[in-house]
Input
Amino acid sequence: MSTRLLLTCAAIGVAGGLVFALNAWIGGTIAALAPLFYGFTIGVYFVPGVVAQYVIRRGGVAVLTASIAGLVTAPLQPLGFWATIIAIAIGAFQELPFLVTRYRRWSTWLFLVGGVIAGVVCAVGMYRTLAKDSLDAASGAVLMSGYFVAPVVFTALAVLLGAALVRTGVARGLRSEHARSTPAA
Output
């Protein structure tokens, strides 16, 4: 890994970590006032990894960037170091579709597949943890939809942000030779 690649991941990760910290306090307020809607706030945790993947198009950058974001936000939010563990897990989910293709395809739909996988895992996990015994069907559906929809929507927004960054020219020299020749769509 080049210094430029590491610094790019660090810059995206630090920006993401600061946004994570702000979101933790906003999301915490929503969790206290209207807990069923907290799931709609978690999508922001998917942005840095996807932006890094879209801009750099190399294996491991989502996990690296998410790890940096988690470390930056850890002292700034109530979850502490758990924020880093959660961020690393999200980065790993984002890597899965590209790992399956051995990092040879960078189609937009693969980014969304990562968001869908993470959304399903989050929705099912939170339902089993919070809603299974204590919520009626409608409340459980609202809870699960937030945890499913947010990762997919924020992944799509991150792809748009990554595409805008690529258009500025920041990706020149970062992408592998194979990723440069692969169409984005």
Q: What stands out?
A: The mean pLDDT is 87.
